[in-house]
Amino acid sequence: MLEAAEKNAGSAVGGPADEDSEIGLLVSNTLNEMLGQEASLASNANTSFAVEKLVRHMSAKQLLAFIHNMSGLYCHLFTNRYSSHVVQTMLAQMANFIVQKESLDEFVDCVSHIVTELDEHILEVIKDQSGSHVLRTLAVVLNGYKPVAKKHFTTAQLKKQRQRKKKKKKNAE
Questions:
Q1: Helical segments of the chain, H only
Q2: Domain of 125?
C-alpha cells in the first residue's frame, strides 16, 4: 500500500513525505488511527513491520509526536524483539533530521528524555539481546552521526536464504 502511494506521490523511497502528498496524508491518517496504541503496535509481531515502514515516511513534526506518545515505555520498547527494530528506525530518522538541523532543539530534547528514561534500566537494556543493538544506534545518534542503514530483505529473500542454509547443512552431514 505504501509502495503504491510512494509511486503516485513521487517521494523518495525511505524518505519523509511532504504532508500534503498522498503518502503524507496516508501517514497522517494512519498516525491518527494509531493514537494511543503506538507502543502496542510497535511491539506486535504482525504490525511492527508496518510501523517501522511508517516511521521512515514521517515528517519531523509527526516523528516528534510519535516519540512523545511512547514516553514512559522506552525500556520495554528497547528490549522487545519487534519494537526494538521500530526504535532503531525511529532513531535513524531522528538522526537524519538532526543532521539536516530540522527541529534540532526538539529532537535533542527527545534524545535526552529517552536517555533519562533508560537511566535506571541501563544494565537490563545492555544485557538484553534486542536492547544492546538499539543502545548502539542511540550511541551513534548521541555522537552526531547517522546510523548506517541496514539492508532490508523481502519475505521471499529470507525464505531463499533459509533454504540455502538448510541445503548447506544437509550437504555438510
A1: 2-9, 22-34, 38-43, 48-56, 60-69, 74-79, 83-99, 104-118, 122-127, 129-142, 155-172
A2: 2-172
